[in-house]
Amino acid sequence: MTPNSVTYVISGASRGLGLALCRHILTVSPDAFIFAGVRNVNSEEIQALAREHDGRMSLFKLDLLDHVGVKKAAEELAKHPAAARGIDVLVNNAAATVGSRDDVLAENALEALSSDVQVNLIGTAAVTLAFLPLLRAGARKTIWTITTRTATISDALNSHAFAASYTASKTGLSMWTVKLSRAVAPEGFTVLALSPGWFKSNMGGPQAQRSSKDAAKDTYNVLSTKTVADHATFWDYTGEKLSW
Questions:
Q1: pTM score > 0.85 for this model?
Q2: Does residue 169 contact residue 123 with C-beta atoms inside 8 Å?
Q3: To 10 degrees, what angle do helices 109-116 and 164-184 make?
Q4: Burial code of 63-72, b = ≥16 C-beta within 10 A, e = fewer?
Q5: Which of 152, 146, 153 is nearest to 197 (CA)?
Q6: Phi and psi (nearest 5°) for 111?
Q7: Which DSSP string do the residues of 175-198 spell out, in sequence order?
Q8: Helix (H, G, I), strand (E, B) or coil at 144
Q9: Burial (CB count <10 Å: 0-12, 13-18, 19+), residue 215
Q10: What is the pLDDT of residues 92-133, one digit of tens each?
Q11: Closest CA to 114 of 169, 176, 159, 33
Q12: 112-133 exposure pattern, b = at least 16 Cβ within 10 A, e = fewer
């Protein structure tokens, strides 16, 4: 680590966009150090990436439904030498859905809504609050939250009634992110949200034209250029500024 090192915490890092972001950041930013939060620390791909970048990456167990465990994970991570000066960037990437395209009227509609809110809204909030002390100690004080433009009300009014539980949970996350941004603005934070678009993944399916590698590159290229002047803004992966 050098005085110019940027330290990241990335949730949901074992697959999809999270894994691709880890790989991209380690490739393009030689001074970066990544704490990769994963539900399964024995995941083969993330283990292989950690071995490939030995000394620049540390894995830790992170389950967004285990709020006590999330807090303990942050406390343990704070003891790591790479976190001696806090962390610079928290990437809230982890997400899940048990719903379907027509889940707003499905028999399990309430179960799906509750499950998605627990992970995508409450779980993300738990991670953010747990890591706030380390962010406050860091130089950049930056939070990147991965969401979707389909969770905006204006988009919903002009689209089909699909993925209701997932998009509703992400709409709630947008509101919570805005409220958080207002609360931490006096401390010099940069809180940003981004929609990475449709890409091949467990959630996006195989029909998408873009790969997770493409999505990671686009996400990083947009968000890494932002400064405190862009605090509390929402972006598309193309660089378009979106309305919340």
A1: yes
A2: no
A3: 30
A4: bbeebeebee
A5: 146
A6: -60, -45
A7: HHHHHHHHHHGGGT-EEEEEE--S
A8: strand
A9: buried
A10: 999 998 866 667 888 888 999 999 999 999 999 999 999 999
A11: 169
A12: bbebbbebbbbbbbbbbebbbe
N residues, the chain: 244
Residue 11 in tokens:
């949730």
Question: 84: which residues sit within 8 A by CB, 6+ positions away?
Answer: none
- Give the DSSP H or E segment for 114: helix 109-116
Which residue, chain included where needed, has tokens 């806090």?
86
Which two three-digit tokens encode residue 186? 């006096």
> Backbone dihedral region of 194: left (phi > 0), alpha (psi from -120 to 50 degrees) or beta?
beta
Residue 6 and residue 32 in contact, taking contact as beta carbons nearer than 8 Å = yes
Cα–Cα distance measured from residue 26 to residue 22, given in angstroms and rounded to the nearest whole number: 6
**What six digits make up the tokens of 144?**
């990147």
> What's the first-to-final CA gap in the chain, in angstroms?
37
